[in-house]
């Protein structure tokens, strides 16, 4: 079984938009890769004019939110850096190398790489003139509105990228279970120089599948 | 899924595809109309569990329930698997005008170009694999419907309480008019990767307007005008609307009430009014007609009541009560008359009858309590009957003077029991006779009656107890009787003889056993002697 990988378009966003963006992307991927019976739920983003679909699984929502919180904490410690979140789907196989040894091996069959660049907003210097302050605020609002419109367009591209990939790559998907596929959401860790956890790299290398960054 | 997976073969695969493709088209249609047909948002239904979905909703593991398809979707004919499904979503001015298509969805099963191609491709296809791919395809359609710009317009037009200058509609068919060059240039196209099935390739595509900025959504002025009109009119309309009804009520309310009141007053004395004032007789028919049944009935009842009850109030009420009292007293008085006939004959006063009644009631209550006590003391009811029988016999024996002789003449066990009972109860008989011997004073009689009743009950209890004792001692009586008849001694002698007889019998048995033992010993000794003599 080949491991299919998808590199999503990089998105530039602010700290306050991380939750909306990651929820939207992760849940859209899960919605397409959960082939068992679901109860679709429409969700509106808080800061963006986008509606995405969840699978209606409370446990999954909780898991995603926890990972987003961890990622946000990492971003606050490493500002203005490119980061990558990896959502992997795998199948577990039990092997018996020896008589008294049981080993569970993860066979990754699909990986999604979400590329983000979190930008911190510029701080404007105070002005003595009220008119100047008003102009600065107006410009800031306009700039934010323009930036968010561009972000929404970019997110839309990413979402349709997910749709395209999900439909083009189907042969590698295992048989439909009665629950969600085994998955793993990997976020950058603080001890990683390259933004990756060494354990993740070790797992990917052990799986014997090509790993593209 | 199980049924589809079972039919994984070529023939079965085609059958599965023939079942799957129409369902996919129908599901796609419902998914599109659910979020492209603006309607007031119904309150969200409670989250249903997966098991609650209908079987039809489970197709492709994606129920269309939030929001559900519009009711009109149920009346649309099911798409034909051989024809494409084309859904145009358009915007049109609310007041009428040209329709502008926002989206054109095409869901079609494109047949294979040739039977050979179908055979070549179809043989290797399994229906379960195609079904799995259709699941993803339908999920993509479901998600794309929310990512496209028309969804924002749909949400805006669904907002409750707002009437916009545009309305969104849809057309469903198997073909649609081609777009003009300008329209074609303005639209973009997205085509999802097809799914190969036995019947052909299942394709989903959409042509859409990337931006709806050209449509200036505004709340219609008619709605605002209506609101302003209501606002201006509401304070003025209230008194205008309220005044005529109040006037009508004010004029109408006093009219019927006075007319009704005279009727009620006129009904008790209609004749004097008609005779005294003939002019009023003409209005009375109109008033008299509506309450026709009430006046004569009321008058009749009133006159009858006043005529009959006025002179007879006390006697009737007293008579009724007297009757009830008499009825209540009849039984107790009768019951009371039997035991003390002589006191009534002596007194002969009606006033004194009440106190005896009360005494009798209390007596009955006491009797009930005592009887309950007796029942609780005695284990079975038969003994109570025996007690009654014994008391009856006792009274009979006591009434006749020759009872002792007659008793002695009989030799049955019952007679012996009766004799014993007579001997035991003899002292109580004196108590029973004693109250009758004192009929002189009333207070003494009352006290005597109470004492007599209590002593009588205690006698009954004692009799019952004695009877129980005697019955339980039957074996002793039998032995006593036999010894008595044989020896002709008194009761005490009988008991002693029974004791001696038991001892004698035991002694005899012991004697016999000793005899046997002695004989055995002698026999053995004799045999030994003979053996010893024979040996030397």
TrEMBL record, chain A:
GO biological process: autophagy
InterPro entries in the record: ATG101
Domain of life: Eukaryota
UniProt KW keywords: Autophagy
Family, similarity comment: Belongs to the ATG101 family.
Protein name per its UniProtKB record: Autophagy-related protein 101
Organism, scientific name: Zea mays
Gene behind this protein: LOC100275976
TrEMBL record, chain B:
Region (Disordered): 242-295, 332-356, 374-459, 476-536
Keyword Signal: no
Autophagy-related protein 13 N-terminal domain ranges (all copies): 99-210
Ranges annotated as biased composition (Low complexity): 393-403
Keywords in alphabetical order: Autophagy
Cellular component aspect of the GO annotation: Atg1/ULK1 kinase complex; autophagosome; cytosol; phagophore assembly site
Pfam families: ATG13 (PF10033)
Ranges annotated as biased composition (Basic and acidic residues): 383-392, 512-521
Sample GO molecular function, one term: protein kinase regulator activity
Gene Ontology biological process terms, A to Z: mitophagy; piecemeal microautophagy of the nucleus; protein localization to phagophore assembly site
Biased composition, class Pro residues, residue ranges: 281-295
Native organism: Zea mays (Maize)
Bias-annotated ranges (Polar residues): 409-418, 439-456, 492-502
Name the record gives this protein: Autophagy-related protein 13a
Domain of life: Eukaryota
């Amino acid at each position: 079984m080949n491991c299919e990988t998808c590199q999503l378009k990089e998105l530039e966003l602010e700290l306050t938009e991380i939750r909306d963006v990651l929820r939207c992307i992760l849940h859209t991927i899960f919605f397409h890769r959960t082939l068992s019976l679901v109860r679709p739920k429409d969700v509106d983003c808080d800061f963006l004019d986008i509606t995405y679909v969840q699978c209606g699984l409370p446990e999954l929502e909780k898991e995603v939110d926890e990972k987003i919180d961890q990622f946000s904490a990492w971003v606050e410690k490493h500002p203005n850096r490119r980061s990558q979140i990896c959502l992997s789907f795998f199948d577990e196989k039990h092997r018996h190398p020896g008589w008294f040894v049981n080993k569970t091996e993860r066979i990754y069959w699909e990986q999604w790489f979400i590329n983000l660049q979190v930008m911190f907003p510029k701080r404007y210097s105070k002005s003595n003139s009220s008119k100047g302050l008003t102009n600065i605020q107006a410009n800031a609002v306009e700039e934010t509105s323009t930036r968010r419109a561009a972000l929404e367009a970019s997110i839309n591209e990413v979402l349709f990228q997910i749709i395209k990939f999900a439909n083009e790559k189907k042969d590698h998907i295992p048989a439909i279970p009665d629950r969600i596929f085994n998955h793993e959401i990997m976020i950058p860790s603080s001890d990683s120089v390259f933004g990756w956890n060494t354990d993740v790299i070790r797992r990917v290398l052990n799986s014997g599948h090509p790993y593209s960054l | 899924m199980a049924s589809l997976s079972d039919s994984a073969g070529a023939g079965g695969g085609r059958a599965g595809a023939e079942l799957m493709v129409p369902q996919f088209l129908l599901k796609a249609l419902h998914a599109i109309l659910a979020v492209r047909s603006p309607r007031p948002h119904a309150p969200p239904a409670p989250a249903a569990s997966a098991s609650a979905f209908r079987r039809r909703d489970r197709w492709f593991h994606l129920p269309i329930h939030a929001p559900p398809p519009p009711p009109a979707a149920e009346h649309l004919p099911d798409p034909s698997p051989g024809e494409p499904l084309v859904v145009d979503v358009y915007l049109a001015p609310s007041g009428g005008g040209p329709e502008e298509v926002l989206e054109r969805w095409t869901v079609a099963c494109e047949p294979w170009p040739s039977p050979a191609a179908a055979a070549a491709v179809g043989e290797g296809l399994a229906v379960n694999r195609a079904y799995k791919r259709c699941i993803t395809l339908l999920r993509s359609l479901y998600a794309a419907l929310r990512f496209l710009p028309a969804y924002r317009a749909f949400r805006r037009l669904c907002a409750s309480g707002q009437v916009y200058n545009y309305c969104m509609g849809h057309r469903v068919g198997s073909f649609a008019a081609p777009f003009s060059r300008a329209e074609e240039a303005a639209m973009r196209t997205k085509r999802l990767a097809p799914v190969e099935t036995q019947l052909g390739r299942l394709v989903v595509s959409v042509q859409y307007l990337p931006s709806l900025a050209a449509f200036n959504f505004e709340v219609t002025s008619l709605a605002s005008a209506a609101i302003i009109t209501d606002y201006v009119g509401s304070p003025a309309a209230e008194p205008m609307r309220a005044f005529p009804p109040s006037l009508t009520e004010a004029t109408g309310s006093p009219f019927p009430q006075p007319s009704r009141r005279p009727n009620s007053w006129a009904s008790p004395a209609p004749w004097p009014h008609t005779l005294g004032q003939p002019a009023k007789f003409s209005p009375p028919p109109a008033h008299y007609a509506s309450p026709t049944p009430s006046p004569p009935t009321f008058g009749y009842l009133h006159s009858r009541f006043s005529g009959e009850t006025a002179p007879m109030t006390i006697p009737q009420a007293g008579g009724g009560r007297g009757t009830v009292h008499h009825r209540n007293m009849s039984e107790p008085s009768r019951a009371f008359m039997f035991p003390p006939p002589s006191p009534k004959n002596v007194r002969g006063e009606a006033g004194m009858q009440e106190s005896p009644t009360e005494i009798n009631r209390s007596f009955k209550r006491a009797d009930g309590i005592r009887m309950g006590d007796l029942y609780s003391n005695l284990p079975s009811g038969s003994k109570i009957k025996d007690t009654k029988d014994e008391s009856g016999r006792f009274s009979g024996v006591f009434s006749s003077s020759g009872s002792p002789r007659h008793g002695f003449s009989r030799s049955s066990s019952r007679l012996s029991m009766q004799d014993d009972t007579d001997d035991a109860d003899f002292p109580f008989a004196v108590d029973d006779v004693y109250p009758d011997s004192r009929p002189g004073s009333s207070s003494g009689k009352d006290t005597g009656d109470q004492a007599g009743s209590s002593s009588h009950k205690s006698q009954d209890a004692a009799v019952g107890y004695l009877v129980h004792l005697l019955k339980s001692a039957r074996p002793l009586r039998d032995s006593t009787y036999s010894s008595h008849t044989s020896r002709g001694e008194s009761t005490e002698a009988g008991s002693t003889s029974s004791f001696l007889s038991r001892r004698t019998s035991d002694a005899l048995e012991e004697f016999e056993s000793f005899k046997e033992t002695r004989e055995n010993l002698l026999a053995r000794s004799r045999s030994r002697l003979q053996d010893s003599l024979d040996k030397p």
